[in-house]
Design brief:
binds heme C; 187 residues; globular; 2 domains; mainly alpha
Length: 187
């Protein structure tokens, strides 16, 4: 009797540890496979048709894991003046898409990239631009502006998919980068 209670206790503890470890992205491949992602996707790719349609009309449908929930809430509260454009939505779409973004935001996902994005921000920082997140700024600071702003095929760092050939699949791995007119990047 004593032994079986003790065993149950030990097994329960082990399950907790393993669960926590995989939730924290302990083994990259495993958590990706469980989500049905390809080996190289590091933020969850967009899998929401309404989002792809409404928020992918003018630019890449940015994966929700690139900003924390508080940023998405702020952005979705200001769609009538969205970086100078009107991107307003019908109320039911606004609610559905805000829920989608918040539930999959960087601070709600255990993925490696998302975790680094969250850690680079102070608690009171709420950027509405991914390109203002310190982690993202830092990752691009070695790229000369002639390859971004001065490059007619890129124009702005906001156009992730101009260089990240697998951005649609949620991969921002540097090995999948090809800068138009320049090519791959190895540093
Ligand atoms: C009518 C066109 C249009 C639509 C629709 C639209 N956007 Fe944008 N979005 C823009 C423009 C223009 C910018 C600024 C791009 C730039 O500065 O190069 C922008 C920028 C952004 C950025 C910041 C990118 C950066 O610089 O890091 C995010 C995030 C974003 N949009 C999310 C969304 C979401 C979410 C939706 C859907 C609710 C949406 N957008 C719908 C036009 C649009
Ligand atoms: C001008 C081309 C270009 C654009 C536009 C661009 N990137 Fe990058 N990105 C790069 C290059 C090149 C690297 C590798 C930099 C290095 O390692 O020094 C990189 C690295 C990264 C990394 C780190 C990759 C790794 O393996 O460590 C992330 C994450 C990333 N970019 C996300 C984004 C997002 C999100 C956007 C859009 C908001 C974006 N990038 C726009 C060229 C670009």
């Amino acid at each position: 009797m004593r032994t079986s209670i003790w065993m149950a206790f030990v097994m329960g503890g082990l399950l907790l540890i393993v669960g926590y470890w995989s939730a924290m992205g302990g083994e990259e491949g495993v958590s990706d496979r469980l989500k049905g992602n390809t080996a190289r996707s590091e933020v969850i790719p967009v899998a929401n048709n309404l989002y792809a349609k409404e928020c992918g009309a003018c630019h890449l449908a940015y994966p929700p894991g690139l900003l924390p929930a508080r940023s998405w809430e702020k952005l979705m509260n200001g769609l009538s003046d969205h970086f100078g454009d009107n991107a307003e939505l019908a109320p039911e779409d606004l609610n559905a898409l805000t829920d989608y973004l918040v539930n999959n935001a960087a601070d709600r996902s255990g993925e490696k990239r998302a975790t680094k994005i969250v850690r680079s921000l102070k608690n009171d920082e709420t950027p509405v631009r991914i390109t203002e997140v310190p982690y993202i700024v830092h990752k691009h600071h070695e790229i000369p502006s002639r390859l971004i702003q001065g490059n007619p095929q890129v124009k702005s760092l906001s156009r992730c998919n101009a260089c990240h050939t697998r951005a649609d699949a949620g991969s921002f791995n540097e090995h999948d980068v090809s800068i138009p007119g320049y090519g791959g990047w190895d540093d």
